[in-house]
């Protein structure tokens, strides 16, 4: 049997094979430090868990509308108004099964055969893959410290083609953790608008900012498509819940897509997520953000001693993007060896970058400071043998 040719364009997520090896080593009794997966070691906040349990006990297990629970859409709109000064009509918000559900809707609406999509390289690989499934071609634009590891307005203008339909940003980004500030984001908005294109912005790490205030493109324009999630800042990874903010004219076709693709997001998860906006939950989440900032600083200090700290520290998310070119030109082999020799699991850059990924690795500071310091010590031993 032959498969859809578009599926052949979807590369495997290489870190998953490393995770499997790491878990096997743990099962064999090795002390593995996990810095490979984008999931902090925090449990879902207690108010959210309690709300989910209450929803189940109350029998809140039937379908919601395809666009989501009205109360949750209103709560998200209130979140934008309170924290970002953005007036977002709840009718423009669609609740989705994770940010992946939002990306699926947006890619199917905005991209198709013959279209080209601009995005940064490195980038979260699923962003490319969703566009490939839609039949579009991705122009992955190499970024570096000079552009702040972001696809800025100058790069958008330089790489825009007649066939370009869409530019996609991620701020803060995965894997680099870097952001566009308000002025640079507004410049991208203007550049894309002047070319008659659409703008899709991944803001799933939006609340996890350390050096710059969190911002949303929704405060700059009502015409952008905005992807967000309850996974990262809100600590609800396994609940699989996200949302998409869309221009008013796009809501109806997106709703039709949602009805057919996934019908509706999880009802208990939606009721649980209402508690994420309560003041007591916000206090928990902000304390965790500060803790991640301390972890970032501790890891940067340790890596500085090894001469490996990035020249431009990440301003958000919970990742460091490290250049290992003086030690290896094969990041996958580097990561496998580090795991086998020192039981430290990190992610090869080839998962994220089409250009230069073999010279980079991603480290997730998703565990406590003591474990991060131990990881640096093990890395130091490992590098001494190179």
UniProtKB/TrEMBL annotation:
CDD domains per UniProt: AAT_like (cd00609)
Segments forming domain Aminotransferase class I/classII large: 31-379
Enzyme class: transferase
Swiss-Prot/TrEMBL keywords: Aminotransferase, Pyridoxal phosphate, Transferase
SUPFAM superfamilies named in the record: PLP-dependent transferases (SSF53383)
Pfam families: Aminotran_1_2
EC number of this enzyme: 2.6.1.-
Gene3D superfamilies from the UniProt entry: Type I PLP-dependent aspartate aminotransferase-like (Major domain) (3.40.640.10)
Biological process annotations from GO: amino acid metabolic process
UniProt GO MF annotations: pyridoxal phosphate binding; transaminase activity
Domain of life: Bacteria
Entry cofactors: pyridoxal 5'-phosphate
Family: Belongs to the class-I pyridoxal-phosphate-dependent aminotransferase family.
Protein name (Swiss-Prot/TrEMBL): Aminotransferase
């Amino acid at each position: 049997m032959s498969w859809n040719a578009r599926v052949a364009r979807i590369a495997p997520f290489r870190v998953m094979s490393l995770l499997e090896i790491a878990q096997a080593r743990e099962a064999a009794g090795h002390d593995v430090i996990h810095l490979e997966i984008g999931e902090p070691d925090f449990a879902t906040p207690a108010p959210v868990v309690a709300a989910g349990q209450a929803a189940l006990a109350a029998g809140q297990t039937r379908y919601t509308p395809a666009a989501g629970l009205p109360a949750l859409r209103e709560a998200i709109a209130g979140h934008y108004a309170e924290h970002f000064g953005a007036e977002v009509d709840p009718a423009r918000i669609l609740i989705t099964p994770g940010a992946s559900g939002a990306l699926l809707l947006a890619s199917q609406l905005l991209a198709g055969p013959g279209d080209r999509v601009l995005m940064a390289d490195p980038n979260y690989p699923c962003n490319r893959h969703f566009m490939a499934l839609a039949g579009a071609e991705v122009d992955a634009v190499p970024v570096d410290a000079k552009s702040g590891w972001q696809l800025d307005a100058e790069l958008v203008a330089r790489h825009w083609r007649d066939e370009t339909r869409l530019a996609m940003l991620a701020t803060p980004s995965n894997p680099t953790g870097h952001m566009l500030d308000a002025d640079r984001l507004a410049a991208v908005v203007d550049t894309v608008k002047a070319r008659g294109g659409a703008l899709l912005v991944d803001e799933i790490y939006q609340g996890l900012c350390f050096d710059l205030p969190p911002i949303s493109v929704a405060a700059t324009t009502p015409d952008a498509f905005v992807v967000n999630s309850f996974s990262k800042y809100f600590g609800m990874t396994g609940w699989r819940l996200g949302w998409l903010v869309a221009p008013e004219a796009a809501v109806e076709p997106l709703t039709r897509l949602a009805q057919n693709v996934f019908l509706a997001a999880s009802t208990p998860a939606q009721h649980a997520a209402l508690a994420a906006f309560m003041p007591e939950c916000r206090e928990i989440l902000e304390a965790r953000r500060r803790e991640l900032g301390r972890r970032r600083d501790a890891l940067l200090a340790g890596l500085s001693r090894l001469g490996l700290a990035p020249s431009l520290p990440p301003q958000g998310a919970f990742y460091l993007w490290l250049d290992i070119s003086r030690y290896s030109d094969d990041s996958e082999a580097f990561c496998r060896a580090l795991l086998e020799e020192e039981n430290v699991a990190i992610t090869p850059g080839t998962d994220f970058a089409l250009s230069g990924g073999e010279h980079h690795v991603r480290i997730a500071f998703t565990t406590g400071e003591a474990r991060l310091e131990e990881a640096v010590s093990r890395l130091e031993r490992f590098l001494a043998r190179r």
